[in-house]
Amino acid sequence: MLSGASLESTDPCGSHLFLSLPDDVLAIISRSLHPRDTCNLSLCCRAFQSLAHSDKIWHVQCSRLQLLPPRELTEWRVAFPSYKSICLFLLRIQPLLGLWVHQNPELGNVVYIMPGFASVVACRVIPQELGPSGIDGSPLLWAPVFEIVALPDGSPAFFLHGRERDSDYFYPGLLRSVESNCNVLLLEVEPRGSSGGKLSHTKSMARHCDSDAEPSRAIGRSNSSLSRSSRMAATAAASASAVVPFSRLAFGDRRKMLELVANQVGLKVPDSLSRSPLFVRSGEEVAKEMVLLLERRSLLVQMYKVGEGRVNWWGMPGLWSDGRQMDSGKTTKKILDRSGTWHSLTVNWDEGAPLQTGKRRSVAGYFKDGLKQMLGRSNSANGNSSMLFLKNGSPSTSERKHAPLQEFLRASDTIGLSLVASKVKLSSYRAWPNMHDNRYALYKLPLQVPGPDHEYAGLWGGSFGWPPGRPTEDKPAKALFFVLISYDETEGQRMLIATKILEGTHYVLHPNGSAMFIVKVDEPSSDPFPWDVDGDSVRVEIKQAYHGEGIANGYGFRYPGSKPGALFVTQNGLLAFVWNETKAVLTLQRLNLQNLLKRGERVPALSAIFNFSYLTKSHSNVFVGSASASHCLPSPRNFH
Predict the structure, then answer these.
(1) Helix, strand and coil percent figures for the chain, each rounded to 5
(2) What 3-state DSSP class applies to 336?
(3) Cβ distance 546 to 496 under 8 Å?
(4) pLDDT tens-digit profile of 155-183?
(5) 3-class secondary-structure state, position 159
(6) Dihedral sign, CA of 488, 489, 494, 500?
(7) % of the chain surpassing 90 pLDDT
(8) Is 336 exposed, middle or buried (0-12, 13-18, 19+ CB in 10 A)?
(9) Taking the domains of the chain in order of start, what are their residue ranges?
(10) Residue 217 — very low, low, confident or very high, per pLDDT cuts 50/70/90?
(11) CB environment 436-447: b (16+ within 10 A), e (fewer)
């Protein structure tokens, strides 16, 4: 038996005593640790290494995140080698979860990102009507936008969803970065080098740096005493810093690049994957669905890694490769089309020079014409082409703010889709962010957590009319509205703001981001509720009532007016805003959108780029073709 002194000398950090505790006690203690602290345990001493890799410890870390219920966490474990891999994936994608929107089309572009199976899935809620059973009884229509699948080590694999020629397609890409407090999701085309997606110091990169004379010469002079490897690292860093961001391209060039890359990298989804579920659902079919989910994930991982067995990721269709230097300013590149045929392209990097193609010109007409337009003299969608030059060779004033497409393409020998989750400074009006019209982006809506001072904060859904959700002879179905309730304070007065984010009519009545009603929380109302009973002939009891104003026809579509009304809270938690003059009523119930989507009905997606964010302004339902015949949408109606 060791004495205290000898034990201290052989175990200076006390790990022997700590590790002698029961596993359940160690698991309880680990709840106070963060994942980074758990990883650092292995650095303390060799005795802690096994503890730092313990599945039980990492199961606790996964549970601390509270992103998955216990049952789903156990089901995910089947697809991973350890809970540590699950935790690393969850930590990376946690900022993405939640409600995202875009202002176009006006009927709504609501995307909810939620856990799938060993993945996260972005689901677009389709503008729709409710059947006789209301929200709880009608399947919610939705379409997949993108999916981020966890690879075995916990790293993410990005797939954009889309539909072409009546078939589902996947468009692989990279999840480039996720900021912890991100509020904008951007779909971009990203230059990539030949080394794991990072820009490498190739000859073309060196030539590009030489065009920026000052940085390259400065590196050569000031670092002459450095080692050769240090100078190469400094040169590579200067090369990377010279890369033109995708956001600096003109809108027309960005659009065409996205369409071009998506057109080439798309992988047709096998029928077995098209029919497979995307979520773990409860019920009697759980065991059967788990088999389908595992098979689906295995196929997705295989498709991502080997590109349907044809070439590896960096040589996938649509990614530029095999760049070879030619005489000044020219580079030959190759692109692989979906038939598996390589086509040669000669790109002239001289400003204003058109694209020259090799002898093989059998690339699809879209690809050929698209590149000619991008690298030639095409006009961008906003009327300003970054590639349009005056006769004297100088760009016009309106074009100088855009970067030439050549500068973007010459940075690397490969390009591909990427998803970027960034934090940017955004202004907002009544909880609705002010958005760019020409960015392929989704904007996150902050969801306030219900509390004592903002009891009704969160996402609500409902329709016009009383009793709630009940059809009438003249209105057999009710348009579904999603409303985000938030609280604000103006001149010392607390306000409840109900912002419309989805409208299920055929032709939009109010723009996205409209305040359906605004209530003064500190001004109770004594107005009586117009109805005594609900749809089940149960007497209605009003718990609270507040004065407010509801939306009404005003100075035009963009500037609606308001009319007085009152917000009533019933005994079963419903909210009903009643306009005083017309007695029109908007009835809302709190939503668990994740559960509704799991029980919902999946419909086909839009084409790939439109599917991410539909930038074209439209006041009609652009998603109506996705809805089934039983959910067809009627002509416009005026509710109040």
Answers:
(1) 30, 30, 40
(2) strand
(3) yes
(4) 999 999 999 988 999 999 999 889 999 99
(5) strand
(6) negative
(7) 37
(8) buried
(9) 4-92, 203-241, 246-262+317-411, 447-596
(10) very low
(11) beebbbbbbbee
